[in-house]
């Protein structure tokens, strides 16, 4: 393997770890265990709790093409849950490596499922 491949692998692993740690912090800000973000399927169930949607939405994520719409909707609800707008949602989708750390390490506070004021 050439040096370029090692550099590429290092960058990919570093960026992946950055997003995982940022997601860990997002879960903790929402009052959920951070480690939940690294457990497959369970992480989606916890994310559904964070955004205020029922557990059966997990099945909607298994339907081809509908899963894309539901996934985008969940990202939008996540951004609303932290008081952000649609522009931030677009950032989370298109530039995840930048916007997830902003959400996780920034001053954003969890304000409730999909931004609903506490009752």
Written overview of the protein:
By secondary structure, the protein is mostly helical. The protein has one domain. It has six helices and no strands. Helix 1 runs parallel beside helix 6, helix 4 crosses helix 5 and helix 5 crosses helix 6. The longest helix is centred in the first third of the chain and has 27 residues. The model has no long low-confidence stretch (mean pLDDT 93).
Mean pLDDT reading: 93
Which strand-content bin applies to the residues? under 5%
Q: Any low-confidence stretches, pLDDT <50, length ≥5? A: none
The total tally of domains equals 1
Number of strands: 0
Order of helices and strands: HHHHHH
Indicate the percent of residues in helices. Answer: 55-70%
Task: Give the overall form.
Answer: globular
Please give the count of helices. Answer: 6
First CA to last CA: what distance? 58 Å
Task: Tell me the layout of helices and strands.
Elements: H1 3-29, H2 42-51, H3 57-60, H4 66-81, H5 86-94, H6 96-105
Helix pairs in contact: 1-6, 2-4, 4-5, 5-6
Quick take:
With 119 residues, this protein is an all-alpha fold. It has helices at 3-29, 42-51, 57-60, 66-81, 86-94, 96-105.
